[in-house]
Amino acid sequence: VNTQTGSEIDNVDWNDDSQFISPLLSKFEVQDSGFDMYNIEFKFMDSYRVGMVVEDYVKSAKVEITSEKTDSGFTTKLVSSKTYDSSGATDSSIVKKKEHTEYRVSFEFLANGALKSVDYTSKIYDTNTYDFSSDSFINGTPDENFANTGTILKKIAINCEYNQKNDVEFDATPYFITSLSNVTINNPQAGQGNTINSGDKLSSDSDLLKFDYAPATALDSWQYVVTESDNKSVVRWNDDYNRFEAASEGEAKVTISNLSDKTVTATVDLTVVYNILVRNFYIQRFSYSETDYDVDTSTSATIYAGGQYRFMLSASGDEPTGDVALPPDTKVTYTNDSHGLLSYVDAVNSKLTFDTSKMEITSPVTVNLTISTEHKRNNFGSTDFSITVKPSQGATISALKGTWKNTEKSATAVIAEDNIEVDGQTSANHGTLVVAGQTFNFAFLVDAGSGKFSYSRIIDADNKTLSTYSLRMTYSQAEGLGFCLSTSTWEGQDSGSTTYILGDESGDDDFNEYTYDYFTKA
To answer: Does residue 302 contact residue 367 with C-beta atoms inside 8 Å?
Structure first.
């Protein structure tokens, strides 16, 4: 019964907050629904993982799990609670309420790990028994209140029985492959025999792999793919797409099997060539990491002296087939003064790197270059690019270390020379910022050439990121060291406020523009 409303109509609908079960659905829940582990876990997931994150209106959440061995296996006890308070919500769509929920779940397992039973009870408490200001019961302990007070939200008992093996015999051999024959991997455009092109994908939906199998009645042929390679520089595994693919020219012995028991296998001596005609090249941002720069156009980019900058280099096929793998002979030729700009092409990983660390310039220069290949038809196979290089901003740590001041904001920044480990994983530079008497510790990474900060955040005394603060930094020789520092509070998923301590923002949620308060070297 829905004790909150007492309404049979409400009971027909699923209550996501408290997971009431409709009386009209109870027969299905108990008798007709499946009882694999997914369905069983669904019945008690709210006691330990669903809604057990302190965010929005969930003010606190606690989960304790203990286990002990028994004669027949082991038992596990789950004791958890959460406090929900939306009484201060300003969004009219949010129902204002205060409720504290306690959960008690016990599990029995057999020695082999099979689930034997589940006993689940959840109870809800209001302001009559729970003090929401202190987030504690008015009287007694949580266990005492669970035993004597509260309103039951849900109570479930599950008992599992496992049948012994019956006498029915089933012959599975007609339905699973027992042998492979006539195995080939071929791309006709690459050549004859077991030959494919660089860039070819050896995924389960590829039509390059062909084979015969026995018995002919087997149903698992779709599971057979390339599962191993003895030369990863030629045929390598791609973690992003869970497949093997041809990376570069050469030879590799590959293994074909299923992805489960791998008891039936075959090997192929595979040759990878580059028999592709290229029309042109273009560049794009290598990744959405802040350390990577965007392009100006598909054939131009702006970078800074004193650093290294990578871009994704792609090739378009001569036929309308989209992008193709980069040719192994892809080369860069300068068509005017390079001013010391160095270029490196990594054809296997589709990467073009510009090294400006040796460039010494006092004003912007434009370097023109051509990227080309001999894998072409007629006058295609080359593209002209222009790279603008601006003078280095000199944002080295030796230049940044020391004291910086902004008298208008009564603010001081001190940057140290050493590195610290942030969040247990990132080695970063660090400093201390004091604004109107309030002290903030911060960490950062900066590109010396551009003065662009790829990583900046406020940290606590243990070098952990403080997520309630947002820090942006910038540097230029003309303006100095800039800070944009804000703090945010949230009243709900889409409701909150931001206060700027340094700098400001304009624009909208999709296109924010930030301004900075600049500091000068003391």
So the answer is: no
Give CA–CA dist 329/335, Å, rounded. Answer: 19
SS3 content of the chain, % helix, strand, coil (to 5): 10, 50, 45
Reported as a pLDDT band with limits 50, 70 and 90, residue 129 is very high
DSSP assigned state of 47: G
Question: Please, where are the H alpha helices in 122-271?
Answer: 142-148
As given in the structure block, the two tokens for residue 288 are 């959405």
Q: Prior bond to 215 cis, omega within 30? A: yes
pLDDT in tens, 162-187: 876 667 788 889 999 999 999 999 99
Radius of gyration of the chain (CA): 32
pTM: predicted TM-score of the whole model, two decimal places: 0.61
For the domain made up of 173-273, the CATH class stated in words is: mainly beta
Cβ pair 196, 254 in contact under 8 A: no
Note whether 232 and 254 are within 8 A (CB): no
Q: Which fold has domain 278-390?
A: Immunoglobulin-like (2.60.40)
Tokens found for residue 87:
């009484």
Ramachandran class of 437: left when φ > 0, alpha when ψ lies in -120 to 50, beta otherwise:
left
First to last CA, the chain: 71
Nearest to 308 by CA among 347, 350, 332, 344: 344
DSSP 1: -
Which are the contacts of 397, defined by CB distance < 8 A and separation ≥ 6?
A: 415, 417, 429
Evaluate whether 501 touches 486 at the Cβ level (below 8 Å). yes
Query: What would the two tokens of residue 477 be?
Result: 């020789």
- 117 — pLDDT class (breaks 50, 70, 90): very high
